[in-house]
Amino acid sequence: MPHIVACMIVLATMVRKPFRVCVLVVPVLVFLSLCAFAVLESRWDAEAEGYDLSQPSLREALEDYISTGKGDLHEILEGKKYPPVFGKTELQRYLRTWLGKSVFHDTDQDADYLPEAYNKGDDWFEATLAGPMVYTGAIYAGARVWVYRV
Question: Which residues are within 8 A (CB) of 52 and not within 5 positions of it... i.e. 6 or more apart?
Fold first, then answer.
């Protein structure tokens, strides 16, 4: 992002005065157009695949299941009831959370977020599959060798 802003400033000083606004506005318009196209194309694809677009998106249904526990996870993910669209919820999540983090990312953030991500994964895995999740990078001697004893 700093590189983009720097390029826009340099280009704005290089072009004639009437075109400076164009140099500053065009990148923003391109970004907004790409966001709108992502939303529209995902809806077109979901409609072509036969999804009912009046239903909540797959993300919304999954978030509702995670927060309330209501519904059937397999039905939500595999039932083809909820359209896998990039809608308002997904766009807000991207713009508010992921865009800033990806533009201003550093490795210190990874160290901060990693334990939280693993804990959420463990909680979800245990609640859904009724067993602890095991992270391993070992090489096993055979199929009957276990990481831990039950």
Answer: 81, 83
